[in-house]
Each structure stands twice: as structure tokens, then as C-alpha cells.
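Exam revision sheet. Question 4 asks you to relate a sequence to its structure. Input first:
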Amino acid sequence: MGTLHDKSAIVTGGSRGIGKSIALRLGQEGVKVVLCARDRDKLDQAVHEIQQAGGQACSLAADLRTPDAPQRLAAVALERFGKIDIVVNNAGATKRGEFANLTDEDWADGFALKFFGAVRLTRAAWPHLKAAKGSLVNISGIGGRTPGAQFSIGGSVNAALLSFTKAMAETGIRDGVQVNAISPGTVRTDRFQARLANFIKEHGIDPASAESEWVRYEEITRIGEPEDVAALVAFIVGPSGRFLQGALIDMDGGATKTI
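Answer key, C-alpha cells:
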């Protein structure tokens, strides 16, 4: 039996990558998981994997950019499992590119899912997290502290999410809710594979050596795995991590060089 047996959790962006790994790990720890993403087929597969491993899970296929979707997601969790102990705001990707080429629509879309989706789900779930003395984890990104020219939208969104985390952590002290954020660096996801393909093209190197060259170029220890982030989430929301409050944790293999 896992350390989080009989807890219930919402994980957004749960159909693949980091979100799916978080959902699988929480399921292994005994958590009843509600996954949300836009791809119904991939959600069904993730739910099946959790159930095959002996866990309990369900899903809602929804676009969290839609204002009422977070409230509907919280309602599904309450209807299915009766409570909300954990919320992991993981959903959201932002467009990369030169600032001059990014439109108002690109900026609005970048904030719509990762920031406003997280804000709205937090609002919907907060009374239940308060009742459960639960945990909120925001998955941000190291661009929030170290933005770059190609990541002006993502850096801004991540910085806003980190600020939101600190604000809610103070509210959480009053309400008994644990609030923290994780900022992953380079993690082996579909998004990373696309960037690696561009890296290969830009540097004219063969695919076999591309990953080691990336590690050297970025001055990091290695490429992260989604399971690395999932393990940290499980620690934070588990009994051993409860003293963490308002922590903004860089999990990036040493990519962030600043204090």
C-alpha cells in the first residue's frame, strides 16, 4: 500500500509526458487520480495503465482554456471520489520564437492554458483542498527565472505561475493547504524530441551523438526523465514533504546557474 493511500488527486496535462508520469506515480502510491487533457484516446490509455497497475483513475477530456472547464473538472473529481486532496497544475505549452514574430494571439494562448487554467482550477478546488488539508503543486519551468530570447512567452507565463504559487502559499498557511512549485529543465518529452530534431539540424550533427552534445552544450548533468518530476511530486505531497511550503524547486540538472 502506498504512502498516499485513499487520497484523491487531479492532474492536468495527464495524457502524456510529465503529467502522465505524475498520474502513474500517484496511482502507484494509492492515490485515486482524475486526469485531464484534450486527447481522449491518450487519456483513456493513461487511465488504463493506472488501472492495470491496480490503481483507481478516471479522466475528463477538456480544453482548460475554456473558462468553465476547470470547474467541471473539479466536479468530476468530487462526483467520482468524493474529495480533492491533491491538485497538480501541469497542463500548458507556449509558443517559442523571436519576439517580433509572436502575435497577441500567441501571447493570449500562452497564458490561457498554463496560467489561467491553473488559476481557475485552483479557485474551483481550493475549498476542497482546504477541507482536506491538501496539497497544490504547480509545474512551472526554469524559463520563469532564466528566460531567453526564444522563450519570451513561456518565461513570462512561468514567472507569473511562480508568483501565483508564492501568493497561494501564504494563503495556504492560513487555510492549511500546502502549496509549492516545480520548475523542470530539459525533460525527455515529445516537446524535447522536437527541439532535439531542430538542434540536430542547426548543428549538423548525427542523431546518435545529439543528446550528449545537448548535455554538453547546455552544461547540465543529463536529460531529465518524466519519472524524475513524478517522484518529486510524490515526495512533496507525501508525509515526508509536508514542511515544504512556497518552495520553488528547480529540477533541471544544473541548468539554472543563478541564485
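Marking note for examiners. The mean pLDDT is 96.
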